[in-house]
Amino acid sequence: MSQLRDLTEDYTNSSPNARDPEVLLLFSVMLKHAGDLMADFLPTIMQSLCQSTLQMIQQDTTTYPEFRDGFFRLVMNIIKHCANGLFQQSGESFQTVVYTVIFAMQHEKPDLMELGNESMHSLCMTLAESPSFATIFYQNFFTTCMKEIITVLTDYRHMAGFKMQGQIVQLMLQAIDSETTVDPSVRLNDLSGNPH
Amino acid sequence: MFPNLNGVQVEGFIIRLFNTVGDWNQFKVTLRDLLVSMKKFASNDDALYKEEREVSNFL
Q1: What's the average model confidence in pLDDT over A95-103?
Q2: Smallest CA–CA separation between B34 and chain A, in Å?
Q3: Which residues in chain A have their CB less than 8 angstroms from residue B29's CB?
Q4: Residue among B21, B34, B35 whose CB faces A170 most closely
Q5: Which residues in chain A touch residue B17, judged by CB atoms under 8 angstroms apart?
Q6: Where are the domains of chain A?
Q7: H/E/C letters for each residue in chain A?
């Protein structure tokens, strides 16, 4: 574990051009196999890997393509395989994850877009199984997510993702349509706090 | 958000989306219809929607 920590620190402290996207892929594969065992390590991943990679790629949608691929895979595996860890993160980290997924969905390159769609889809699936998190999530992010999904669904640059985008919209509408998913007794409206 | 759809259309689509939310195949058809109608411009005083407008005024 300490070697892994060194690796993430090294990644953060290097200049963007000296970083190796394989680090992102390594952690993405580790998350896939270790799942919730990585939960304790997740804050480190979020702080060192996610923040520094985001700074490299958030200005546009084309530079550092291999970093984008690794990074979106990493975020996807956090959502898919380490959901319990993800729900324990601070509100700020959680927000970073959600905005990264939305950002991935906006990419025009089909495989990057597909990673974003898949992440959002599994996030909605996971939320459907945990009503209390779903309530908080949808209170904070529903309008943002819905707006961004409708945008990519209706413009002509993201046609290939129609099926996934449609299913995400369906899942989100199901969530607000069913009484079991949303628990009205939980009322939290600030983004700054912990999502609990 | 949808400058080329009028209120009646958007409302109709939202109701249809909620009505078909349990069935992916019907939901998909509704979404496709939405995309198709977005390619056409329609204004609020469109003659196509005269009947709906009268009903809503009546209510």
Answers
A1: 93
A2: 9
A3: none
A4: B21
A5: 169, 173
A6: 2-177
A7: CHHHHHHHHHHHHCCHHHCCCHHHHHHHHHHHHHHHHHHHHHHHHHHHHHHHHHHHHCCCCCCCHHHHHHHHHHHHHHHHHCHHHHHCCCHHHHHHHHHHHHHHHCCCCHHHHHHHHHHHHHHHHHHHHCHHHHHHHHHHHHHHHHHHHHHHHHCCCCHHHHHHHHHHHHHHHHHHHCCCCCCCCCCCCCCCCCCC
Q: Cβ contact (<8 Å) for A174 and B38?
A: no
| Average pLDDT across chain A, whole number | 85
| DSSP, residue by residue, B8-47 | HHHHHHHHHHHHTTT-HHHHHHHHHHHHHHHTS---TT-G
User: Is A173 close to B24, i.e. CB distance below 8 A?
Assistant: no
Nearest by CB to residue B24, choosing from A153, A170, A177, is A170
- The predicted-structure confidence for B8-26, as pLDDT tens digits, reads as follows 888 888 899 999 988 999 9
Res. B7: pLDDT tops 70: yes
Domain A2-177: give its CATH architecture: Alpha Horseshoe (1.25)
Identity at A83, one-letter amino acid code: A
CB contact A170 to B (< 8 Å)? yes
Interface ipTM above 0.85: no
